[in-house]
Amino acid sequence: MPQIKRTLKGVLGGLLGLLGLSAVAGVLVTAAVTPAIAVAGVTGSQALTIFDNLPNSLTPGAPMEPTTFYGTGTDGKPFQLAKFYDQNRVPVSFDQVSPLLYDAILSSEDKSFYEHGGVNLGATVKAVVDNVRGTSSRGASTISQQFVKNVLIQECEWNVKPTLKNGKTNEKYGEQLRACWTEATEAKGADGIERKLQEMRYAIQIEKDFSKNDILLGYLNVANFGGQTYGIEAAANRYFGTSAKNLTLGQAATLAGIVQNPNRFRIDLEGGTYTDKDGVAHNGKADGYADTKFRRDYVLNRMFENGQITEAQYKEASEAPIVPNIKATTQGCAAAQDQAYFCQYVRAVIETDKAFGETENERQETLRRGGLQVYTSLDMRIQQPGNDAMHQYAPASVPGATYVASGVTLEADTGRILAIVQNTKFKNSEGAKEGETSQVYAADREHYGAIGFGPGSTYKLFTLLDWLEKGHSVNETLNGVLRSSGTYKLTVCGKPTTTITKSGNYRKSRGFVGTPMRFTAQSLNTGFYAMAEQLDLCDINKMAARLGVHQGSMDPVTDSNQLFESVLGSKSIAPIQMAGAYATVANKGVFCEPRVIDKVVSTEGKELPVPKQSCTKVLEPEVAATAAHALRGVMNATGSAARLGDGVPVIGKTGTNESYGTAMATASTQTSTFIFSGFDRDMNAESIPWNERKTLERTYGPSGMQLSQIRFPLSRAMQGAANAAYGGDQFPSPDRSLTRTVLRDLPDVVGKSIDEARGILQGAGFSVAVGDPIDSEIGQGLVAAQSPGAGRAPSGATITLSPSSGKKPEADKPEGTVPDVTGAKYNQAKAALEKLGFGVSGDGCKGGSTVSAQDPAAETKAPAGTEVNLSCEGDG
Question: Rounded mean pLDDT of 417-442?
Answer without folding.
Answer: 90
